Structure prediction request, 496 residues.
Amino acid sequence: MAPSAISNGVSNVANGHTPKLEFETYYNLINNELTKTAKSRHNINPATTEPNPEVPVSTQEDVDKAVAAARAAFKTWSKTTLEERGEKLVAYADAIDGHKDDFAKLLTAEQGKPLAQSYVEIGMATSWLRAFSTMKIPDEVIEDNEDILIIHTNVPLGVVGGIVPWNYPILLAVGKIAPALITANTLILKPSPYAPYCNLKLAELAARFFPPGVVQALSGEEDLGPMFTTHPDIDKIAFTGSIATGKKVMAAAAPTLKRVTLELGGNDPAIICDDVDVEAIIPKLANVSFLCCSQICMMIKRLYVHESIYARFLAAFVAHTRAFKVGPGTDPDVFIGPVQNKMQFDKVRTMYQHIAAENWTPALGGDVPDPDPTGKGYFFTPTIIDNPPEDSAIVTEEPFGPILPVLKWKDEEDIIGRANAGKTGLGASVWSKDLGRAERMARRLEAGSVWVNSHFDVAPRVPFGGHKWSGVGMEWGVLGLKGYCNPQTLWLKKGV
Prediction:
């Protein structure tokens, strides 16, 4: 197929007549041209195992073309004003809103999450774009006297490779597009091979608002990521994904000294103190344990409950979780959809097999699904494990599926040590009516985000990242913007 050029479309947007995208065919976007490849592939709907449409399989030649276009575009895009870039981000957000029904259906078909959760993700993405449209990094005057003015500023890096995971493909793509573009960089999206569809349509829509080469997207197989991370003309990799892959990204980026931001896996603890109102906090805790079939890096993965309220808490938590409806995301009132792909299905299934093998006690669920989910979907019954050993796999590993350990604690010093055990440090929370006590405990937790009486609260203006093996650098907020820039110090001599 010959490339198809896309007009800028801003005038049509202003008049309210932007033509609708079609959501039946999928292309790469290179230099604002829709392109196909010699080879294609498809993913499946995880709720039905039926095939989704074909998508391109990109080659090194495609990557080279996109990088060359991004470098050429950077020369002019980097000279635009903050206001110009912000206006385009807002117009882009409006256009996503105008296609939200199509994006929601597509997101549920490729990711599996319930439609209601798909709409929430799209709403978050557009709010992120609007927030970043007015965000800037202020210059810092270090010294100003009659002899010299010293200013610390930040300048764009150049070409960014945004590597997006399969669990939140719209929000996490926009979470890289917005900071990269507002800081005057150009960006090439690389969707997950498991969830390429929404990212390709996001890029196709972006071409209506941004000049050629500013936003591009390439889909492909497992070999596409290394083409990004080793490319000599990509200046930064912004990666969200597993710890194991994050290590590979960092190693691959080293020979070209690429800047990297890595948002990696977690094993978030939540500590429930003895003074909480159990009935009041159970709904929130259950939601942030099983949302998106627990396939979110900052879901609660370890729930530590003070022993004096443990029995009452566990009974209430089990009762609330049992009421969650499991099924295809298109069915009404479903809260837990399928696991997204066969690879993850097999990993989670192995964790469920540990229940019998290691004599864990399921307070809820525990059924091991058939190893062949063809025609049935990648579904699991939400499962709660009652006080397993601290060294068991369900406590020390991140299952990334709807199985959760609930454990007892008594001593504050002991629970802080248990919560901080391990190599991850993405998020953590403390729940207590005594805010002084809760803050004291929270400040001792080794995590990039720590909440009191909540969990998984995120906002575009608030930096987000991990400690230890859960990441390098921060996304979002002004601190996140700095990760898309080179720092620069200006020495301005006066009176010369």
Notes: The chain is about 35% helix and 20% strand.
